[in-house]
Design a protein that fits this description.
Elements lengths: L5 E5 L12 H13 L4 E4 L11 H15 L5 E4 L5 H9 L8 E5 L8 H12 L6 E5 L1 H4 L5 H10 L3 E6 L4 H10 L5 E4 L5 H7 L3 E4 L6 H12 L3 H19 L5 H9 L16 H13 L1
Parallel strand pairs: 1-2, 1-8, 2-3, 3-4, 4-5, 5-6, 6-7
Helix pairs in contact: 1-2, 3-4, 4-6, 6-7, 8-9, 9-10, 10-11, 10-12, 11-12
Length: about 290
């Protein structure tokens, strides 16, 4: 899976004021990502506000993204949720043309046991025609995929090829990297953790702030891949404040405001998310000027 090495970005879904999808801005954003050196794109990860999109809207976004990219960079589709049967059917019926893998978030809200998480991914792996990237983000899901469960899945299913890890648990990262099979990889799911995770052996990042600053993020990942950590640190520290502001009032609210300031549409989000406050807007503007 060389397609998922380096810098990937979890694309936002731009909206108009009436809540409809702003495909023109999405197209402009895709072009921006490719021209600025992103290695691959993730369509409809959690940053894409997938939980508030209908099935038909998801199909339209995937089709539009595939048509716009035209094979210039690899594409990953986000298909995950807390209803295993529904996700299995979605994966089974997914039109794989133009996509290289599926990113599937661990079940949220249900708070399953480790056995439940294992059985969830087992069911997906048994029907998927594409390689699968696990996604562990306890801050969103309310439960952690343990290293033991990750390794169990990696060793039993050859089509489970990586995990996007956003737990912040470096002991867990180290255990996965130490004991994983050769085909399985670790990807940072948290922008500020990219440098130290890649120093341990992760192969890259699926970024949020990369929506707005793809050149910084791609350069950081490429420097880390070349073990040029001193140069990478400069970018790491430069991005810290703006990355924090992406999340201070919820994701993707912060990065959508940054993109608005950069000329990429408006910062509309779907409820229950709301646009960032004027106070955070001011902080973002200051951080953008410093960049």
């Amino acid at each position: 899976m060389t397609e998922i090495q380096g810098a990937g970005v979890a694309l936002i879904t731009p909206f108009h004021a009436d809540g409809s999808i702003d495909f023109e801005t999405l197209g402009n954003l895709i072009e921006f990502q490719i021209s600025e050196g992103m290695d691959y794109l993730v369509s409809l990860g959690t940053t894409g506000e997938t939980a508030t999109l209908s099935s038909e809207e998801k199909k339209k976004v995937w089709q539009f993204t595939k048509d716009k990219v035209k094979g210039r960079v690899p594409l990953v589709a986000g298909i995950g949720g807390n209803n295993t049967l529904e996700i299995v059917e979605a994966v089974k019926n997914f039109d794989t043309e133009g996509f290289c893998a599926i990113l599937s978030v661990s079940p949220y809200y249900n708070k399953p046991t480790q056995e439940g998480i294992y059985q969830h991914y087992k069911a997906i792996a048994e029907v998927s025609k594409l390689p699968i990237i696990l996604y562990n983000v306890p801050g969103r899901t309310g439960s952690n995929i343990s290293a033991e469960t990750t390794l169990r899945l990696a060793k039993e299913f050859k089509n489970i090829v990586a995990i996007k890890e956003a737990s912040g648990n470096f002991a867990q990262f180290s255990e996965i990297l130490r004991d994983k099979p050769g085909h399985f990889q670790l990807i940072s799911g948290d922008d500020p953790a990219t440098l130290p995770m890649m120093a341990l052996g992760a192969i890259g990042i699926i970024s949020v702030v990369g929506n707005a600053y793809p050149k910084y993020v791609s350069t950081l990942a490429h420097l880390c891949a070349e073990a040029k950590y001193s140069e990478a640190r400069d970018i790491h520290y430069k991005l810290l404040e703006i990355t924090e502001l992406c999340f201070v009032e919820g994701n993707p609210c912060g990065v959508k405001y940054i993109l608005k300031e950069l000329g990429f549409g408006e910062d509309y989000v779907r409820l229950p998310l709301v646009r960032v406050s004027s106070k955070t807007q001011q902080r973002i503007q200051e951080a953008m000027r410093s960049l």
